[in-house]
Design brief:
Helices cover 41% and strands 22% of the residues. The protein has 288 residues and is an alpha/beta fold. The chain folds into two domains: 117 residues, ATPase, nucleotide binding domain (Nucleotidyltransferase, domain 5, 2-Layer Sandwich); 151 residues, Nucleotidyltransferase, domain 5 (2-Layer Sandwich). A five-stranded mixed β-sheet has the order 3-2-1-4-7, sandwiched between helices. The protein is globular and about 55 Å long. GO terms for molecular function: kinase activity.
Length: 288
């Protein structure tokens, strides 16, 4: 099977050709301002390849597979609430499969990455916001309203959302407001590792907020594996830093027997592309 995979992002569109279980000829272009320009750019990329059999797409928003539209909102407004499947299939003359970007990343980790040996898995995306995906018996579970995995909407004990409490972007903003600085998240983590008092306080609050959500997810879904993705997952110590904090919650209620395996994601830049391909195969197989 020879597929063209696209990952639609707010600032850039990544792509690659999937052949013999690998992505080749990878590249990217700046996200166009209109749907027409997007399709034109995608067509140019597709036409440079030979014998493409289908188009696999990772996209932001809630993908309604039944109605074949992308609901919700994102930094690419023109892809939402339009007959996107029909438009793409007409433009490319090929079968198209689309899935939410966090779900695609999760599919990649479950199929070939950090959770390939798991049975019930929760995948967290810790980036500019917080999101993720849920897998029950290794099958993607989006829920009745397609809100499965929207961990950033969950509430911490302080009454604020996970996206507000548990992201490096939010932590850096909080630190800068208090200290009158202009640091990014990576610089803040560097100060944390150096033991700078206010940085330690700010990052500890972030880690504790994430661990609180991990705990709640654990006792509700009871996964055997939790995979941590997003930009901060490049930090090799992240899984241990969060596991220690979550263990304290489990220990307080004497349920350490429910402790999951917490690991960093293996696939990063290409996770959405591989996941889009995995989703394509599942969707096409379901039609056969």
């Amino acid at each position: 099977m020879r597929l063209m995979a696209f990952d639609l992002g707010g600032t850039s569109v990544k792509y690659g050709t999937y052949v013999k279980d690998e992505l080749i000829d990878k590249g990217s272009f700046i996200t166009p301002a209109t749907l027409e320009e997007l399709m034109e750019k995608m067509t140019t990329v597709i036409d440079k390849q030979e014998k493409i059999e289908g188009i696999a797409i990772s996209a932001p928003g809630s993908v309604n597979q039944k109605d074949r539209v992308i609901e919700g909102i994102s930094a690419i407004p023109y892809i939402h609430f339009t007959p996107i499947y029909d438009l793409f299939e007409k433009e490319f003359g090929l079968p198209v499969a689309i899935e939410n970007d966090a779900n695609c990343a999760g599919l990649c980790e479950v199929d070939r990455g950090a959770a390939k040996n798991g049975e019930n898995i929760v995948f967290f995306v810790l980036g500019t916001g917080m999101g993720g995906s849920v897998f029950i018996n290794r099958q993607l579970h989006t829920g009745s309203h397609m809100y499965g995995g929207e961990f950033g909407m969950s509430l911490n004990s302080n009454g604020e959302t996970g996206s507000k409490n548990g992201t490096l972007v939010a932590a850096a903003k909080k630190y800068n407001e208090q200290m009158g600085t202009n640091l990014d998240g990576i610089q803040l983590l560097d100060l944390y590792d150096q033991g700078q008092a206010e940085a330690v306080k700010t990052i500890d609050q972030m880690f504790n907020a994430i661990a609180e959500i991990l705990y709640n997810v654990q006792v509700i879904i009871d996964p055997d594996t939790i995979v941590l993705g997003g930009g901060i997952s490049n930090r090799s110590s992240l899984s241990e830093e969060l596991a220690v904090r979550m263990d304290k919650h489990l220990e307080e209620l004497d349920i350490l027997g429910a402790k999951p395996k917490i690991v960093n994601a293996q696939y990063r830049n290409d996770a959405n592309l591989y996941g889009a391909v995995i989703n394509y195969k599942k969707q096409i197989e379901s039609l056969l």
